[in-house]
Design brief:
With about 425 residues, the chain is an alpha/beta fold. The protein is about 45% helix and about 15% strand. The protein is globular and about 80 Å long. Bound molecules: uridine-5'-diphosphate-glucuronic acid. Uridine-5'-diphosphate-glucuronic acid binds next to α8.
Length: about 425
Amino acid sequence: MTITIIGHGYVGLVTACVFANFGNQVGVIGRTPEKIKKLNGGDPLIYEPGLEELLQKNLEARRLKFTLDYDPTIKNSQVVFIAVGTPSGDNGEANLSQVFSVAEKIAENLKDDYTVVSCKSTVPVGTNRKIKEIISRKINSSVKFDVVSTPEFLREGTGISDTTHPDRILIGSESKKATKIMLDLHREISGERVVTNLASAELIKYASNSMLATKISFANLISFYCEKSGANAEQVLSAVGLDNRIGSKFLNPGIGYGGACFPKDVKALIHTGHELQVNTGLLDEVENINKLARNSFAEKIIKNSKGKKLGIWGLSFKPNTDDVREAPSIFIIKKLLENNFEITAYDPEAMKHIQKQFGNKIKFVDDPYKVSEGTDNLAIFTEWNEFKQIDLKRVKKLMRGKVIFDGRNIYDLDKMKELGFEYHSVGRKTISV
Ligand code: UGA
């Protein structure tokens, strides 16, 4: 099939590479000349495991092309995907300006023959109908098209396997013809097929992300109970997760969820709730607990640090990505700087982005051991694999103090006691020396 994808962020680019790799001809439309040039040169612009190789392979095979031009890319396509951003607006609502302006451009370039316009961007319930209206207003009667809603469930860091082996392929459609074309395009991809109307598909995306965020906030809430009562959050939540009806995933307490999706999507669902006059108390509390999780960890550091030198391991909002959007690290670092901490930090991929925000207020080094050299305290904000089995004896020798704050519970309590660290984690007892 020949397809177009508008947008080359995590969703657009991963989807483009995966579809090209199945033999489709894929045109990707962007709006920044330098970025398009880099993408055509094989630079994915983002760090996502396996993506650079897949991009280069499919560019070489001439199945993938990046362009600024809607014409003729769209005219040649049977399916046109919208995969642009829907950032949070001032009141938490999803900002749909990019989606709507792209819909106008699609309308100007559709061929007379039939095209499916498929929206992958996360958009509030009712948006796909508006996309249909925008396009309908601009075209003449010979142009035929349908709009379908195909939300994406890929995670950063595992984007390629999530796209080739998803739990489900969701198609919101009110046209049999469009549904058939979309099912055909996804033929090589595993996962349950779910076909719904447009509104249900739109809501399934928000409900899924909000459910996952709710599980995380619930885990953080239970970790607060554990810290006050002497229970161990790791044991409590893993036992809770053993109940098949609950499941163990996304029950890890920590310093809260971040990233470009959960914070934005929970806010947007709250906003939609206000519009529809639905009580949003549960979701309000999910957000509150998320803020509490990162604030109480910052307080823990401020209260228990011995000395003002602090080393930080991990800055990205989760491992295997360089993304720092809404990363808990940013909120915590701001508080620590207000409290006059001298910070040295290391992250395998995300330092350049944090550097843009904090400049020389933080010292960056290229190795986790260098972070520990001469520091009074050490804090872990992201559970990158390279920290999990690091030589902690060496770390202890390099540090001036011996206090570790672990926001992701990556170390065993007995081991930390044996090594002689003062060890503060989340929802577990403090190891003192
Ligand atoms: C999330 C969803 O998992 C994807 O299904 C969805 O497609 C995507 O949003 C999106 O809407 O585009 P992502 O934001 O990449 O994916 O990352 P997650 O793995 O979901 O993690 C989100 C945050 O939750 C991270 O900050 C992570 O550290 C935190 N988290 C996750 C916890 O604090 N505890 C957990 O148990 C799990």
